[in-house]
């Protein structure tokens, strides 16, 4: 709880994964991937309830072992390849509401972002709840600026965006950011009314690129393991 507001953390973890089978519980430095996110949420000073939303009994078992709540197995209609994260979160909110558990804010924590820690979570909560806005999404700066990117049309190079500078020296380009997938924080009211994590007033929470790795491939997993091992040696 922060400023008398109850905060729910939802960790979405379906069993199906085409790229890496059972990615959400794959071994990362001797621990299942989802455990890093569960532990970060449990260590938060402000999160009141940490819930894993999964359709898979094996993921449920691992999540319970690491002290997350798993009050249901997610229905199939929000567990397939076309399922949207917003539907998963709203389903979790409504399920708990029907059980008499109501929250003011919800934070979506994807298990594929294991380098995000409890300090990131708590700092982001403070940033949002000390503002007048309803939502916050974590971002990181991108290396490849779209100002220097080109598409090919009629066998000619064309800019993706128009840049009015005299040259394209990297140092003079405007900074550009991308959602890194680590943190989505919203007022519950906003999610239920707008059915969207993002609107024109959403705040950014800037994270370092080395904490923003989102595991989508085995190469990403190896990079995360390297970073975790280096951090453990500090």
From TrEMBL:
Transmembrane segments: none annotated. The keyword Transmembrane does not apply. Gene3D superfamilies: Spore Coat Polysaccharide Biosynthesis Protein SpsA, Chain A. It comes from the Bacteria. SUPFAM superfamilies: Nucleotide-diphospho-sugar transferases (SSF53448). The lineage of its organism: Bacteria, Bacillati, Bacillota, Clostridia, Eubacteriales. The keyword Cell cycle does not apply. This is Acylneuraminate cytidylyltransferase family protein. CDD domains: CMP-NeuAc_Synthase. Coiled coil: none annotated. GO terms for molecular function: nucleotidyltransferase activity. Keywords: Nucleotidyltransferase, Transferase. Signal peptide: none annotated.
